[in-house]
Amino acid sequence: MKILFTGSNGLLGQKIAAATLKYPQHEFLATARGENRVVALGNARYASMDITVETQVMDVVTSFAPDVIIHGAAMTNVDECEEKKEEAYALNVKGTSNIAQAAVHVGAHVVHISTDFIFDGKNGPYTEQATPNPISYYGETKLEAEKIIQNLSSWSILRTVLVIGMAEDLSRSNIVLWAKGALEKGQAINVVDDQFRTPTLAEDLAQGALLAADQQAQGIFNISGPDFMSIYKLVEAVSNHFNLSMDTVTKVSSLTLNQAAKRPPITGFDISKAREKLGYNPHNFSEALVLISKQAGL
Known about the structure:
Layout: E1 2-5, H1 11-19, E2 27-32, E3 44-48, H2 54-64, E4 68-71, H3 78-83, H4 85-106, E5 109-115, H5 137-150, E6 155-160, E7 163-164, H6 175-185, E8 189-192, E9 196-197, E10 200-201, H7 202-215, E11 219-222, E12 229-230, H8 231-241, E13 249-252, H9 272-278, H10 285-295
Parallel strand pairs: 1-2, 1-4, 2-3, 4-5, 5-6, 6-11, 7-10, 8-13
Antiparallel strand pairs: 9-12
Helix pairs in contact: 1-7, 2-4, 4-5, 6-8
């Protein structure tokens, strides 16, 4: 098969690129806005593609004619989405619409990456059947994108949670790298103990995306790590793993943070469907930290 993936400069995109080596039978095209910033593209070629530019998307997709498009490119900074709604809409909704139109044009299956932030967080962890109710603009745009994808004839939606991992030249950090950096410097940090997640190693999300692409799996799948924990417990696990002090960490309520966007308090996912139907097998959180340590050369 021919598989095109978007957002190849980001954390997930870099892990998909690296994992293409496990699928020598397929031909891959990595795409992102601007220049390729990734050294390890695996078996993939690269083409610049801005998902917000309809003609560009149609040209690149038509030229490559993929059987599957893995659509991971998105604006994922929750507060920025709240403050820059036009940009968030352009990337997360219009961008997805452009991908969907191009997929119809070439007859491609779409594997779309979505989020736990489509839920209000009142009764997580969630199954695939749970009713979405976003409480942030980011969540609203991602839910709208899901509806666009569900209008296609062949699609998978992979919902994920709090993606963590190590990669090169990232435009933004993730919670494990942030916590490790802050604890190493002895910075005073406030960490919430009233938000619960099932953190997801980026390699595992890439595995889920490629399993769904390879099988052209139909429907919604929860793709996350298996361990349900508070953000405070997550930071504590990072401190224990890297043997760093928690003395500068203050446990706080979400209400004290004054963030632009609301966060759902309790999300996390039941991943039994993905395990059973896709053969998805994620690392636990301890294993994820070991892998991140190795990649960081520690």
